[in-house]
Specification:
eight-stranded mixed beta sheet, alpha/beta, 400 residues, Rossmann fold, disordered C terminus, cytoplasm, 12% strand, binds ligand LP7C6HRI, three-stranded antiparallel beta sheet, 2 domains, disordered N terminus, binds potassium ion
Length: 400
């Protein structure tokens, strides 16, 4: 992993490591298991359970079901050098952190007292075994070739994320922070904030959708400040070499006109939107932000389904339009974007968002970050955006 970037909010993942995956045959697996069983221990429920796991494995392979595999690379096979991978993400997790984050939560382990073996590998393997019982017979054990110092860094990452996590904002808190940014505590003007927010949106789009393949960006702007973010983003996208078109049923903005960015005539019908969708490669959804209150009103109640049915990739600003700021897409009327760029801090409603998730709004003073316990991630280098880990929806077990 040397030289590869990860931080407290960008977890180390399989793609960052140079694993040599190896599939063990049954004899080799047995040898390894026997070696573990030789480790000093008192025979207990874990020992029995692991024996049963072994038997089941033999039974499974005899019946030509999925093979059990241990995967590792050339690293030295010692507990300090071992990560496991969770079944539902592609993350690598050091064993000691796994104990905290997963063992306690696994139903099948609840009847056992786990404390005596907290530092042992065995329950981890059983845990994995138990987790995989539902879907497959593989045990994924990944031995890395990380140096001690790198292991410490990764462990530090997990310790950090176990104790701190990014705060998700309610609508009220988002509004309060917004106001505070424009009070003496932040001393920003609305235009300044919007400029930085719009730049972050444009950077996110450019990072995910390259201009050679997705030159025609349809920027859909709503009636509030988020619509302003969209206009700023359109201007930056124009500067970056994209060909933005603005759909903004409520008002016009001179800067974009000056740049000859095509703006569809404001209108409450959605014909112009339908036409524009047919001529676009990607959509920037800057319709509703944290002041949205359902249900969706005209003309957006027609516009959102039109946008969804276009099949074009969508990047949403702050919250996918149509989602309740705190309860998400419970009503099912909102857009389902591929990418989300949250501003300042993610909103409660997007906890379940499974696409690529970026954070922008690199303008929050440290004092405000601490006051509101936002636990913001570090922005890399001079970027206006930082990508957050995807919350769920990827199955690491299938990705290796
Ligand atoms: N600090 C920051 O993070 C900054 C974020 N910015 C962006 O501003 C929006 C919030 O702006 P606001 O003007 O408060 O609200 P909206 O953009 O969400 O728009 C409200 C707008 O929409 C209308 N509306 C509300 N509900 C409905 C509905 N059901 N149907 C139709 N229309 C509806 C309402 O009447 C208003 O006109 C935030 O999300 C960020 O994107 C700032 O740019 C900079 C600081
Ligand atoms: K939005």
């Amino acid at each position: 992993m040397p030289g590869r970037y990860y931080s407290k909010f960008i977890p180390p993942s399989l793609s960052m490591s140079e694993l040599v995956c190896q599939k063990l045959d049954n004899d080799a697996t047995d040898l390894l298991i026997d070696k573990w069983l030789e480790r000093p221990h008192r025979p207990d429920a874990y020992y029995d359970w692991f024996q049963r796991v072994r038997e089941r494995r033999h039974h499974a392979t005899t019946n030509a079901r999925n093979q059990q595999r241990l995967l590792w690379n050339k690293g030295v096979f010692v507990p300090e050098n071992i990560f496991i991978r969770t079944v539902d993400t592609g993350r690598l997790i050091p064993l000691d952190r796994t104990w905290v984050t997963h063992v306690y939560h696994h139903k099948s382990m609840s009847r056992l007292n786990m404390m005596p073996v907290i530092f042992s590998m065995l329950p981890e393997l059983m845990l994995l075994r138990g987790m995989h019982d539902r879907g497959c017979d593989d045990i994924y054990v990944i031995v890395t070739d990380l140096k001690r110092q790198e292991m410490d860094q990764v462990t530090e990452y997990f310790q950090y994320t176990a104790t701190m996590s990014l705060r998700y904002l309610t609508a009220k808190l988002a509004q309060q922070i917004d106001e505070e940014l424009m009070s003496a505590a932040g001393a920003f003007s609305l235009d300044q904030l919007m400029e930085l927010a719009g730049l972050a949106c444009a950077q996110t789009l450019a990072k995910v959708y390259h201009k050679d393949k997705y030159p025609r960006v349809l920027v859909c702007c709503g009636p509030g400040n988020q619509g302003g973010d969209g206009l700023v983003a359109a201007r930056h996208l124009g500067m970056f070499g994209y060909q933005p078109t603005i759909w903004m049923p409520k008002r016009l903005k001179t800067q974009c006109d000056n740049m000859k960015i095509q703006t569809l005539a404001p209108s409450d019908d959605t014909h112009s939107l339908s036409d524009a969708l047919a001529r676009s490669d990607v959509i920037l959804d800057a319709i509703f932000g944290f002041s949205f209150k359902p249900p969706v009103r005209a003309p957006f109640e027609t516009a959102l389904p039109l946008i969804s049915s276009s099949g074009l990739p969508i990047i949403s600003v702050d919250i996918p339009s149509g989602w309740d700021v705190e309860h998400g897409n419970a009503e099912g009327v909102g857009l389902n974007p591929d990418v989300l760029i949250s501003l300042t801090a993610p909103k409660e409603g997007v906890r379940q968002f499974t696409g690529r998730h970026f954070l922008g709004g690199r303008f929050v003073p440290k004092s405000m970050e601490e006051k509101f316990a936002l636990n913001l991630p570090d922005y890399p280098g001079f970027d206006q955006i930082v990508e957050l880990p995807q919350t769920k929806g990827t199955n690491g077990a299938q990705r290796l």
